[in-house]
Amino acid sequence: MKKAEYEGNLGCRPEDRVEPEDNGGARSIVERETKEKDGAVDLMKRLLDRENLNRAFKRVKSNGGAAGVDGMTVDEMLPWLRKHREELLQSLGNGMYRPQPVRRVEIPKPDGGVRKLGVPTVIDRMVQQALVQILQPIFEPLFSEASYGYRPGRSAQQAMKEAKEYYEQGYTRAADIDLSKYFDTMNHELLMNIIRKEVKDKRIIDLIKKFLKSGVMENGVKSKTEEGSPQGGPLSPLLSNIYLNEFDKEMERRGHKHLRYADDIAVYTKSRRAAERVLESCKQYLEKKLKLKVNSEKSKAGSPLKLKFLGFALYRTGKGTGIRVHEKSMKKFKEKLKGITKRNRGRAIQQILKELKLYTTGWLNYYAIAGMKSRIQELNRWLKRRIRMYIWKQWKKPKTRIGNLIALGMSVYWAHKNGYTGKGYWRVAGSGILNHTLTDKYLESLGYDDIAKKYEVLHLNY
């Protein structure tokens, strides 16, 4: 689909602004609409407001991301918007705007299967972001305190602190509930009925419905979307919270202690039997009332000391309870590090270290709340040995090895002796041959970001 095939579009003034000071076209459309009750006109005005659209444009641009079905990149967005401003504003104002299908992308999941993501076009992403900015203030005050995902000022780490408090209060059992393909199975009718309770502007309602029904494009074939809200667009997380807020409120009515991060749900109880009962009753509510599918194989009742929630678990300490990285999450981390440092990748060591820094920084920022000092120190030693092995493999020939060992301070005699060693790569990487030449300080000079040091700094912030 070509860029010119949009039915309505928006242009921008220079300096990354998506709306001129005048904006007469959009305002005249809104103002000549027949006034509706309950502030409906004001809501459309907020969507088309110059500052709202500018914020949405800048947010989409800063987030980057892949192109949608039309091939337009975020860098091409501003020139396109400058040219098509009035069309887009008018189409939004008069209800003629038509979102394009999302481009379907499948991402492998660590436990098998795939996660289906939808990539909207950059223009659709901007409109979705503008919608989020006017809808979030309406729904945010209505959300449960137990909801931590995709909300301003809330995080998975805060949820885990709450889980720790529940355990210390005697809630030592939990029902861990796994929803099967949640984002793909939200019921459109139920969702829209929930939204209509708070949003009275029919044009906003219709625009949300259009995004839900815009369809997906996969291998050049368009398919209708009769349910769900594909992950990937700015609007989807908000819609998911609106939908599952019904579950949150039901848990509150029943007096349960629970935590939710998007579609990750844990309900805490004081006994095994209570956890099993709660698991079954939650399944009934989610499937019958909200028309979702609970994955019975992955949903289970058990101890928070063993169950994985948001990648974490709890553990007992001499002073109480601590937060740890779940074994499955730690295993996945190590496997990823092993893949990056695989010795036959054929990339410069500086590039490998750059990849490591990018990945470990994100991982540690998320998991630094957990107590894992000895584990991360052990992993740090293993990772540095992997890096030394990678460098040794790159040196390849004895002549190259000898020259590099001498340059790093080894005597000529020992450089020749070690350059012709028959030891395997892993053994050499753990021996004095490289520990005394490719020192920790030298690895850091090449760009290695010491994960043990970084963890200590980040962990102190919690």
The order of strands across the largest sheet is 2-1-4-5
Q: What's the Cα radius of gyration? A: 27 Å
Query: How many β-strands, per DSSP?
Result: 10
Shape: globular
Helix content: 40-55%
Tally of DSSP helical segments: 21
Whole-Å distance between the termini?
Answer: 49 Å
Low-pLDDT residue intervals, each spanning 5 or more residues: 1-17, 19-41
Average predicted confidence as pLDDT: 89
Relative strand content: 5-15%
Structural class: alpha+beta
The largest sheet is: 4 strands, mixed
Structure description:
With 462 residues, the protein is α+β, with helices and mostly antiparallel strands. The chain is 53% helix and 11% strand. It has 21 helices and 10 strands. The chain has helices spanning 24-31, 40-48, 50-63, 74-83, 85-93, 122-139, 156-168, 182-185, 188-196, 202-212, 235-254, 272-289, 327-340, 349-367, 373-395, 398-407, 412-419, 425-429, 432-435, 440-446, 451-460, and strands at residues 102-108, 114-119, 173-178, 216-218, 221-223, 257-261, 264-269, 300-302, 312-316, 321-325. The protein has a 4-stranded mixed β-sheet with strand order 2-1-4-5, with no helix packed on it. Strands 6-7-3-8 form a 4-stranded antiparallel β-sheet, sandwiched between helices. Strands 9-10 form a two-stranded antiparallel ribbon. Strand 6 (257-261) and strand 7 (264-269) form a beta hairpin. Residues 1-17 and 19-41 have low confidence and may be disordered.
